[in-house]
Amino acid sequence: EVQLQESGPGLVKPSQSLSLTCSVTGYSITSNYWGWIRKFPGNKMEWMGYISYSGSTSYNPSLKSRISITRDTSKNQFFLQLNSVTTEDTATYYCARWGEEGSFDYWGQGVMVTVSS
Amino acid sequence: DIQMTQTPSSMPASLGERVTISCRASQGISNYLNWYQQKPDGTIKPLIYYTSNLQSGVPSRFSGSGSGTDYSLTISSLEPEDFAMYYCQQYDSSPPTFGGGTKLELK
To answer: Is the Cβ of B98 closer than 8 Å to some Cβ of chain A?
Structure first.
């Protein structure tokens, strides 16, 4: 069974970087596309970006200058880095797989990140 | 970006009731529309892909329809586990975007 698990600090100071890890079991990240999505307080959801099976990336233009998604295929993990965070980046962050049928078909349980001094 | 407008934002309903949630895109999205369910504990489950196709394991009381800019999710007879948040998501053009969510609440 495909499983995803996010991990990382729950509190980040303004202007610092947010770094999260998504650990995948049951499926290789060298197949499919792997994304980060966040849900803000108030329920808005935003696709942040993805890393592909080949390691190519695509980012939401709203984040393009601040975001980086990388991976470690030996550990079957991919990572999110978001720079220069503000309180507006407070959200629950999810990692997810983009399935062949064209949807996010497996999700992690989410990790809440608060940006506060 | 394509804007997705979901209505209603909240919906009180009763067990056994038939409910429909609507999702309107700011431009045509050629049926590239998915639905997701988020439970109170935060877990997100895919329900429907490409407008009307049920994900594996999703009960048949869930159905999706639509075309062009207007799409809907229908639950034919509400069960206790269906009271949750529901989101639509388009993937016709990048970036993929989500609706604002509909909270289905027990009346």
So the answer is: yes
What is the enclosing helix (H) or strand (E) of B106? strand B102-106
User: Between β-strands A18-25 and A3-7, what pairing exists: parallel, antiparallel or unpaired?
Assistant: antiparallel
Contact B98 A103 (CB under 8 A): no
* B20 half-sphere exposure, CB direction, 13 A CA radius: 8
State the pLDDT confidence band at B58, using cuts at 50, 70 and 90. Answer: very high
* pLDDT one-digit tens code per residue, A12-70: 999 999 999 999 999 999 999 999 999 999 899 999 999 999 999 999 999 978 999 99
Contacts of A109 (CB under 8 A, 6+ apart): A5, A6, B42, B43
Q: B42 vs A109: CB contact, 8 Å cut-off?
A: yes
pLDDT score of A64: 74
Q: What are the residues whose beta carbons fall under 8 Å from the beta carbon of B40, sequence distance 6 or more?
A: B84
Residues of chain B by 3-state class (helix, strand, coil), percent to 5: 5, 50, 45
B85 and A43: CB-CB below 8 Å? yes
Which residues in chain A have their CB less than 8 angstroms from residue B50's CB?
101-103
Q: How far apart are CA B68 and CA B49, in angstroms?
A: 15
User: Token pair of A68, please?
Assistant: 């980086």
Q: Which residues neighbour A68 within 8 Å (Cβ) at sequence distance 6 or greater?
A: A57, A80, A81, A83
Q: How far is A23 from B78, CA to CA, in rounded Å?
A: 35
- Among all chains, which residue has been given the structure tokens 């792997």? A34
